[in-house]
Structure formats: C-alpha cells, structure tokens
Design goal:
By secondary structure, the protein is of the alpha+beta class. The longest helix is centred in the first third of the chain and has 53 residues, at 16-68. The strands form two sheets. It has a five-stranded antiparallel β-sheet with strand order 1-2-3-4-5, covered by helices on one side. The chain has a three-stranded antiparallel β-sheet with strand order 6-7-8, with helices on one face. A hairpin with a 2-residue loop joins strand 1 and strand 2 (82-86). The N and C termini lie far apart (121 Å). The chain has a domain at 56-168. The chain contains one helix and eight strands.
C-alpha cells in the first residue's frame, strides 16, 4: 500500500509576515504625509502673519506719506509724543502712539487755541494682529530740511518687523 500525503489546500489571504510588512509601509507613508501637512500648515501660518505685517507696514507708510504731502515746514510741530500737522487745505491732524497702536486723528484749532488731545479718537494705523512697540515720533532737521522721523516695530504673534520712515516737509 502506498502512502499518500495529504496536502492542505492553500487558502487565499496574507500571511502574518506580509501583514506586518504592509502595515509598516502604510504607517511610514501616512507618517510622511502627516509631517508634510503639518509643515505646510505652519509655513502657511507664518507666511500669513508675515504678509499681514507687510500689509500693515504699507498701509502705515501710505497714510504717513499722505499726511505730510504738501505740508510746509512751519505747519509741523510736536508736543510731547504727539506730532501735529496742518494740511494745505487748513485741516489739522495729530499723529500719536499709545497702547500698542499708531493713531491718526483729526484735530481742531479754534482761533489759535490749543489742539485737543490726539488720544481721544481717530484711526488706528495698525490692525489687531500687530502691535506697535517702542515707537519714536520726532520732528527734526535732516539735511537742512524739517522732517518727521517715525521709528517703531510691528510685532505679530511670531515675528517682528522694523518700520522706519522719514517724511520731509515741502
């Protein structure tokens, strides 16, 4: 009598070793995608903040340029931390800095009397995402001309930008 060996039929499916290898490969791919996604998100947030600070800087520069455009040297004066300007059309403005903001406020001069405090109202020249730190607003003679020098830093959540502007009276 001849002995026959019974061979079990191979069932469809994966062996345990194949499952371990495939799960390791899939977890490596998922990990790579997650780290790339985290990198993109943090880079996007950093770029958004940088662009916001640049936008603040451009807006402040345009408003400061507008304020001093066409103004004669004798129409600019400072009282403490506030710079007052009489525009060519006769209107008065005050540029001041307080509580983390750079502020441009209309001011009135009645019969040569004192101008009201600039902190009472006006427009913030920086938005809520950026704070003004260590501002210096000065009126000085630069190269023989009267000029207003504005030096400050714009601070966001993770970044700080310097803002330096010199505007000459015309």
């Amino acid at each position: 009598m001849m002995l026959t060996y019974f061979r079990p039929r191979k069932l469809p499916g994966f062996t345990l070793l194949e499952l371990v290898i495939y799960s390791a490969l899939v977890s490596m791919i998922v990990g790579a995608f997650l780290s790339a996604a985290f990198f993109l998100i943090t880079t996007s947030q950093r770029d958004r903040e940088r662009n916001d600070l640049l936008e603040n800087e451009r807006f402040m520069a345009s408003k400061v340029s507008w304020l001093f455009y066409g103004v004669r040297p004798n129409k600019i004066w400072s009282v403490g931390p506030v710079i007052y300007v009489q525009r060519p059309n006769g209107s008065y403005y005050a540029l001041s800095s307080s509580n983390g903001t750079l502020q441009l406020a209309p001011a009135t001069d009645t019969n040569g009397d004192s101008i009201p405090d600039a902190y009472s109202g006006g427009v913030k020249l920086n938005n809520n995402h950026a704070s003004v730190i260590s501002p210096q607003l000065t009126v000085a003679m630069v190269n023989g001309q009267k000029a207003v020098q504005i030096q400050l830093s714009l601070q966001g959540k993770n970044e700080t930008r310097s803002f330096v502007r010199t505007e000459y009276a015309q």
